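Supplementary Note 3. Input sequence used for the single-chain structure prediction.
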Amino acid sequence: MKKIFPVLLVLVLLVIAFLVGRMHTASVPVAAANKPTILYYVDPMHPSYKSDKPGIAPDCGMPLEPVYSDGGAASGTVASGPARPGVVNINLQQQQLIGLQVATVVKTSGQDHLQVPGRVVADDTRTYRLAASLGGVISATFDHSVGSRVKKDEVLAVFDSPDLVAAEQTFLQGMRRAPENKYQFASTKDWKDQYLKLAAERLRSLGMSEAQFEQLVATQQPVQTLQIVSPVDGIILSRSLSSGQQVERGTEFYRIADLNHIWILASLNANDAEALHPGTEATVSLPNQGKRWKARVSNALPQFDPTTRSMQVRLEAENPGLTLRPDMFVNVELGVHYPDGLTVPQEALLDSGLTKRVYVDLGGGAFEPRQVETGRRSGDRVEIKSGLAAGEKVVVSGTFLLDSESRLKAPKTMQPQKVESVSSPAHSMSSSKMLKDPVCGMDVDPAKSIAAGNFESVRGKTYYFCSPTCRDKFHKDPKSYAVAGTNDTTSGSMQMGPGGGQ
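The predicted structure, written as discrete structure tokens, is reproduced below.
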């Protein structure tokens, strides 16, 4: 029995070892199966060129790129794993060639500083319109023109009206009947005689000044001449009379404004205007001058200006010295408080009119197009309401080249049905086919030629090359290769590529 036990123990250990080894052997193929394998290597400029080993492309001198079994590409060069629709894979060397740069999506603080234009206008509550209360004739005028400064009770013109005599006689009759009411213009409300009080109010409504009232009481003689005087210290904004002019009741003589207190209309977009509150302080300054004034947002609602398509926010300011005049343009600085939100540089946004998208850096050389919803714009940044998360990185330089490459790789169902405006060679090649290199005759992918800088524009036509060597040969003698229809586009905008030129 003692001899059998060791034998059984050895057999049990052998069985356990066999089972463990079998499990390990079975797991290795599974792990290997999950790991993508390299199928072959391709020329980045000519995907039709394939090689079973790494090396240098014979035409453009760039390293061959591996193609994996799962649709991914080289580790450390592009993102591994199955490729998603529209994702663009660009290695580090190509990123440097096209000058690709990224920026981080950040959450901005709720305080922003705005600098907007403003226009000075007169305060409506301090603007006075002098008009004729009777029909008559302008008998005399003085040297008062638009822009002239005038003092309170200063005589501006003389107006003759026969109807004025009747009103004066009514007042004088009341004075004789109630002599105890010695006339004082400012205290007519204290008079006990209502008939005399109404007669005095009638003369005041016709525009009779305190000096003329005193003269009328002193002389007891009615006159048909009415002096037109300024009601305040101010500036003449308009004048509509001349000596000898026949006027009717309601005719405006002068418009005078007290400019010691003024309004300023600041032009803002709708989002910024909504963020302002009455009482918000602002600073007003004249362009190229060191003078500054304090102002505040009034209680008036912002008004829409159809000419500038902006909201006009009213500010109120004191104007000592009357330096600010109506219709002057000023700079307005405002502090606006916004709720916290995600923002990106405006250069990151591609706005086609129908959709707005950015390109997100997925890491490892992969860039994904993502549709976003935007909000307010402030300075050089734009708010992102949906589509991005804080900390993600978006492309801010080279976006048009990425967009053209993404459109070439994306399925047709994902591409917009509406053709966007052409603004660069990369953008115009978003739906182009393979072209021929005019020097060597090889197939050329226009988007990749642009990314590598291998293109040349001559007389409004753009030619694409597989390598710098072919491009340089063409540059030395373009007439030998520039055959119409070989490799060109007739759009004049094709001359505006990055780094391109005549």
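The mean pLDDT is 77. Residues 36-83 form one domain.
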